[in-house]
Design a protein that fits this description.
Radius of gyration: 22 Å
Number of strands: 20
Strand content: 25-35%
Distance between the termini: 28 Å
Helix content: 25-40%
Shape: globular
């Protein structure tokens, strides 16, 4: 191989998603030379935004939570020009729309939680106690709790089956990407806490602004785009174009399937798949920036994105995003469109279908008991990180990348054993 085709660095990070960018940032700041290889044409992994006919479309419906510790540590939130959702959610039911709201943020909407509307008195008391424990209790106590399914945890907290079916199951299905509520209760409590303590937002220019900001803070020129890796080697990695990238340490920061391909024997979790349909409407079917879920579970959630961020759609048009579990299939969009007509009380027949995004491996399946974090060291000088190694969230991805960097630095600081 020609010498011009050999590239050298202290650490090679494969994948420029959030985990890889966080890891590369910490290693660079520690003084190591780092090279990041990304197979696609931009950073971000699943967090990408496309421009289409004047609309800004995230690759799958994604929200940004300001309460995550890693987010507060690593990002300049003001630069993202965040626009908030309404605190709470709407649920479409056979009784019409019911509103779940946070009265501490919107006192005028507290009447929506009066007994008999969304829930009865006992449920409201149980919900208040659960919320208070999660919001104000120490996070370490949440992490130490016995892990079980979310469905069991809700029952043990005194939440009735009726409120589970009306609100929690349809709402949490959009969070966990599964509707059996078999996801780890510890993860549920942490998610519930983060929603109570933070604000759900969208960056004005799309979710892709988040990884773009992280990448901008890396030393110039260390990210190589459109550089897929064929395999790892004893001295680093071999790219598909034949270039050998040499490094003493390699960190695999890809999705789980790609990671398992590069690291044979790696244990990876099952994953969840979600599909998002984007429609353009002549006018907004819901004039507020609020998530709408469906008690009949015909879709996970829908939202008029242009009510959250008006600049995400051309003037005079509305952008509607709707997500469903699993993959797209023939006639599924037609069924979703009919469900949206019912939920919004609008004529959806003339809505323009802009795009469909199916995201394979959107989240790891997290059945109880689920470790909230895993070691990243796979073998000597070989590491793996990503949200599939922690909790499937922005916080999980960033925390996993942070842990990988810390463990790399700990190993590189130790003298190598004599042969």
């Amino acid at each position: 191989m020609a010498d011009s085709q050999v590239r050298r660095s202290d650490v090679l990070v494969i994948g420029a998603g959030l985990a890889g960018l966080a890891c590369a940032t910490d290693l660079s700041r520690a003084g190591l030379s780092v090279r990041v290889l990304e197979s696609s044409d931009a950073v971000g992994g699943r967090m990408r935004t496309d421009r289409h006919q004047g609309f800004l479309l995230d690759r799958g419906f994604q929200v940004f939570n300001t309460s995550y510790p890693q987010v507060r540590r690593r990002l300049k939130l003001r630069a993202l020009r965040l626009r908030p959702f309404t605190p709470g959610a709407l649920v479409h039911t056979d009784r019409g729309r019911l509103r779940f709201t946070d009265p501490t943020r919107r006192p005028r909407a507290a009447a929506d939680l009066l007994p008999g509307r969304l829930a009865g008195s006992r449920d409201l008391l149980a919900l208040g106690l659960l919320t208070a424990r999660d919001m104000f209790g120490p996070v370490a106590a949440l992490k130490r709790r016995a892990d079980r399914t979310t469905l069991t945890a809700l029952a043990d907290a005194g939440i009735s089956p009726e409120l589970v079916e009306t609100f929690f199951r349809p709402f949490l299905a959009g969070v966990f990407l599964e509707d059996e509520l078999e996801t780890s209760s510890r993860f549920f409590h942490l998610v519930w806490r983060s929603m109570l303590r933070g604000t759900l937002c969208l960056p004005s220019t799309g979710i892709g602004a988040v990884p773009a900001q992280l990448a901008d803070r890396l030393p110039r020129g260390i990210v190589s785009l459109e550089t897929p890796v064929r395999s790892l080697t004893e001295s680093g990695a071999l790219a598909e174009d034949g270039t050998e990238w040499e490094a003493g340490t390699v960190v695999v920061a890809t999705g789980p399937r790609a990671a398992a391909g590069l690291l044979p024997g790696l244990d990876i979790p099952d994953t969840r798949t979600v599909t998002t349909y984007y429609h353009a409407a002549a006018g907004s079917p819901l004039r507020e920036p609020t998530l709408l879920t469906d008690a009949r579970r015909r879709f996970l959630h829908t939202c008029v994105i242009s009510e959250v961020v008006p600049g995400r759609a051309p003037a005079g048009r509305a952008l509607v995003a709707t997500s469903v579990l699993g993959r797209d299939r023939p006639l599924r969009e037609t069924a979703v469109r009919a469900a949206l007509a019912d939920a919004y009380g609008a004529d959806t027949r003339r809505w323009e279908r802009l795009a469909t995004y199916t995201v394979e491996g959107a989240l790891p399946a997290m059945p109880a008991p689920w470790p909230l974090s895993r070691p990243t060291r796979f073998a000597p000088r070989r590491y793996v990180c990503g949200d599939h190694r922690a909790t499937g969230s922005v916080q999980g991805a960033l925390a996993s990348g942070t842990r990988a960097a810390r463990e790399v630095l700990a190993e590189t600081a130790r003298p190598r054993a004599a042969p």
